[in-house]
From TrEMBL:
Residue ranges of domain Elongation factor Tu-type in the record: 87-122
Origin species: Lasius niger
Gene Ontology cellular component annotations, sorted alphabetically: mitochondrion
InterPro entries given in the database record: EFTU-type, TIF_IF2, TIF_IF2_dom3, TIF_IF2_dom3_sf, Transl_B-barrel_sf
Gene3D superfamilies cross-referenced by the UniProt entry: Translation factors (2.40.30.10), Translation initiation factor IF- 2, domain 3 (3.40.50.10050)
UniProt GO molecular function: GTP binding; translation initiation factor activity
Signal peptide residues on this chain, from the entry's feature table: none
Domain Translation initiation factor IF-: from-to ranges: 5-65
This protein's name: Eukaryotic translation initiation factor 5b
UniProt KW keywords: GTP-binding, Initiation factor, Nucleotide-binding, Protein biosynthesis
Organism lineage string: Eukaryota, Metazoa, Ecdysozoa, Arthropoda, Hexapoda
Length: 129
C-alpha cells in the first residue's frame, strides 16, 4: 500500500502507514518533504513503530531513507550471518599441499569473498595449477 498526500502529516497518514507493519515493517514509513508533522501524528508514529523521515531538500530526504534501508539490510545480514554461506573463490597453492587425503590440508589464496571456518567447499575442476 502506498499513498500520496499534500499537506502536513496527520494521524490518518500514520494509521495508513501502520497497515504495513502487518506485512513488512520496513515499509511502514512516511516521507515528508517540506511539510510539518503534527505532534499527535509523531506521537502515534513513535508508539506504533512507523518511521517518519522529514527534510526540506528532496536529496536529503532520499539520503535519509536510503541510509535507513541500508541499516535494515545490515541488521538482517548480521542476524543471519551465522546460518548464511557466503561464496568465495579460492586458488589452491600446489607448493602448499600437505595432505591430499582425508583430512585434506592445503594452502590456498583467497581470490574473492571471505573464507570462514566450516564453509563448505567444492572443486569445479581438478586443475590445481
Amino acid at each position: 500500500y502506498s499513498g500520496i498526500r499534500i499537506g502536513p502529516v496527520v494521524k490518518k497518514d500514520v494509521m495508513k502507514a501502520s497497515i504495513m507493519l502487518e506485512h513488512d515493517s520496513q515499509y511502514a514509513t512516511i516521507l515528508a518533504f517540506d511539510v510539518k508533522i503534527e505532534k499527535d501524528a509523531q506521537e502515534l508514529a513513535d508508539s506504533q513503530g512507523v518511521k517518519i523521515f522529514q527534510a526540506d531538500i528532496i536529496y536529503h530526504l532520499f539520503d535519509k531513507f536510503t541510509s535507513y534501508r541500508e541499516e535494515l539490510k545490515q541488521r538482517k545480514r548480521d542476524e543471519n550471518k551465522h546460518i548464511a554461506v557466503f561464496p568465495c573463490k579460492l586458488k589452491i597453492l600446489p607448493q602448499y599441499i600437505f595432505n591430499s587425503r582425508d583430512p585434506i590440508v592445503i594452502g590456498v589464496m583467497v581470490e574473492a569473498g571471505i573464507v570462514k571456518e566450516g564453509t563448505p567447499l567444492c572443486v569445479p575442476s581438478k586443475d590445481v595449477s
